[in-house]
Amino acid sequence: MSKVRVLVGTKKGAFILESDGKRQNWSINGPHFGGWEIYHMKGSPVDPNRIYVSQSTGWHGQMMQRSNDGGQTWETVGNKFTYEGVPGTHQWYDGTPHPWEFKRVWHLEPSLSDADTVYAGVEDAAIFKTTDGGQNWKELQGLREHGTGPKWQPGAGGMCLHTILIDPTNHDRIFIAISAAGAFRTDDGGATWKPINQGLRSEYIPDPKAEVGHCVHRIAMHPSRPNTLFMQKHWDVMRSDDAGDSWVEVSGNLPTDFGFPIQVHAHEPETIYVVPIKSDSLHFPPDGQLRVYRSRTGGNEWEALTKGLPQSDCYVNILRDAMSADSLDSCGIYFGTTGGQVYASADSGDTWTAIARDLPSVLSVEVQTIA
Amino acid sequence: MIRVVIPAHLRTIAKVDGEVELDLNGPVTIRAVLDALEAKYPALQGTMRDHVTGVRRPFIRFFACSEDLSHEPHDTVLPDAIINATEPFLIVGAIAGG
Questions:
Q1: CA distance A191 to A351
Q2: Smallest Cβ distance to A58: which of B7, B51, B59?
Q3: Which of A155, A261, A158, A161 is nearest to A214 (CA)?
Q4: Which phi and psi angles does B32 have, rounded to 5°?
Q5: Helix, strand, coil in percent for chain B, rounding step 5
Q6: What does CATH list as the number for B2-93?
Q7: Interface pTM, i.e. ipTM
Q8: What is chain A's pLDDT, residue by residue, as a tens digit (371 residues)?
Q9: A118 near A131, Cβ under 8 Å?
């Protein structure tokens, strides 16, 4: 029988939640790396028991961990992330030049074909790659050096590269997103990159239609349609049907089009999920009601999903890497909150249950469906 | 042999309990202690000082014999009490917990 493993990164450690395919009874294993911030953990699609973890603190910086047995044991792997060449400067919050400084790994994206190959998105924004299971990391500097880097600037959470999507039909095509620079694409395995932000409009920057400078919060893709991308931007939910060459807004009837995560249903490429959040500065659900919004039409027409979610006095946030899906026949959707809850739906979002209620503030949620 | 105390998080990373004992060849300096510590426990590389520049991480402090050596040059020779292991060299996480 299939099993579901939910990898939860929190501000104070990692937790692994497991259930059988019914998804009714969950075990919670952890904390792993207690006291450390776990920005992200993700398993290899080639070998689900190979799990990579980004572990950091302000005291000791970045650590990287790897498991070869599904999270039962861990080994420390390489934590040396050094920018290639002279890193140069990006814009600081006040517009002045600021030197590139490595701070942490935000996102890990294991290769679709090799368990030893992983991409890492880091702050200050850059993409690194390992081909030896995490022992050594090398920057793909073509992204940072392609020309617009001096115009990039940090979002409120830092200048992070937080999204990495690999085209399952062409592994040399990779999409990434940076807050606040925008979305970028490579078609040659990371050697060269170009901005793909045409159609984005951001009123909070001097030129709302600028080539770069957009605060993209998250991009999602269904593996069967790699040319279709869905984006949750700082404001606006967007979609592209030409691999990011152009974008159109699909916010439609959302109560607010601000949010962080965006997720695609495992079996329905036009069914997508967002969690609207009140902003700019509030960053909690409107009216104290935690509502996931689902569109079955690829955007524009949205319905609120509330059954099982708190509908009063709820003021948590859901961060950009904290939503995921399983691939069982009845698709499961999962998300974690800054209040330490992990909610799961085994019926595509119709009903929700808290499968963990009192964890530290959740930074990331990844789901593995294990046959 | 000298004695070194490292922060709790780093003891977990290094998989050690209590004090660490190091054998050093040559002058017992801050740099020599860090070099020996990282050589014996490679997982600690980058957790106390920068991989490339060797600069102490901002939230790491060094103490010896009740003296704060955090801002001393890393080639500073440590006191006799450290060299003869009467006292441990202390690597401490800055108090920044709230």
A1: 44
A2: B59
A3: A155
A4: -65, -35
A5: 25, 25, 50
A6: 3.10.20.30
A7: 0.91
A8: 799 999 999 999 999 999 999 999 999 999 999 999 999 999 999 999 999 999 999 999 999 999 999 999 999 999 999 999 998 999 999 999 999 999 999 999 999 999 999 999 999 999 999 999 999 999 999 999 999 999 999 998 899 999 999 999 999 999 999 999 999 999 999 999 999 999 999 988 889 999 999 999 999 999 999 999 999 999 999 999 999 999 999 999 999 999 999 999 999 999 999 999 999 889 999 999 999 999 999 999 999 999 999 999 999 999 999 999 999 999 999 999 999 999 999 999 999 999 999 999 999 999 999 98
A9: no
- Report the distance separating Cα B13 and Cα B9, nearest Å: 6
- The nearest alpha carbon in chain B to A102 belongs to B50
Please measure the distance between the N-terminal and C-terminal CA atoms of chain B and give it in whole angstroms: 36
CATH architecture of the domain covering A41-336: 7 Propeller (2.130)
- Please tell me the distance from the alpha carbon of residue A222 to that of residue A38, in angstroms, as a whole number: 26
Mutate to test the interface with B, among A55, A56, A60 (most CBs of B within 10 A): A60
Sequence ranges of the domains in chain A? 41-336
| Cα dihedral: A331, A337, A342, A343 (round 10) | -50
Q: Tell me whether B54 touches chain A (CB under 8 Å).
A: no
Tell me the chain A residues in contact with residue B57 when contact means C-beta distances shorter than 8 Å. 59-61
**Strand A126-130, strand A138-139: pairing:** antiparallel
**Is residue A35 within 8 angstroms of chain B, CB to CB?**
yes
H/E element holding B82?
helix B80-83
- How is residue A222 written in tokens? 């269904």
Residues contacting residue A104 through CB under 8 Å, at least 6 positions apart: A37, A39, A54, A56, A61, A62, A122, A123
